Amino acid sequence: MAHTDLDNAETFGCNGWYWWVGASICIGISIRIAGLIAIHTVGRAKQGKKPFFKEVAADFQERSIFKSFILRGIFMFVALAGFVVLSGWLILRENV
Predict the structure, then answer these.
(1) 13 found inside a domain
(2) Is 72 part of any domain?
(3) Which of 8, 11, 60, 90 is deepest in the core (most CB within 10 A)?
(4) Where in the sequence is the domain holding 77, given as residue range(s)?
């Protein structure tokens, strides 16, 4: 019955064995997103795809915004930035 002993606890902290789990998961996802971005922008000829700049130029002529190459790229950069910021916050936050 550990939950009944909360009144006697002096401080709440983030020093448990599970403290780094959230940060390590966010760092792993950040690395995977960065790798995904690198795979889709570098070495496209070896993957049988159009060059990056030709695909971006062709994207301006496409009508559907939801199939847009640029929109997906912006989403991936926002996701990467979000996970990097979240990882930094999880690592640097102080014990409360």
Answers:
(1) no
(2) yes
(3) 90
(4) 18-92
The pTM of this model reads 0.65
Domain count, the chain: 1
- CA 92 from chain centre, in angstroms, equals 17
pLDDT score of 34: 94
Residue 8 lies in a domain: no
Residue ranges of the chain with pLDDT lower than 70?
Answer: 1-17, 62-67, 94-96
CA angle 18, 31, 34 (to 5 degrees): 150
pLDDT at residue 7, rounded to an integer: 64
Cα dist from 19 to 2, 24, 46, 83, whole Å: 19, 10, 42, 17
Contact call for residues 44 and 56 (beta carbons, < 8 A): no
- List the structure tokens of 84: 């990097």
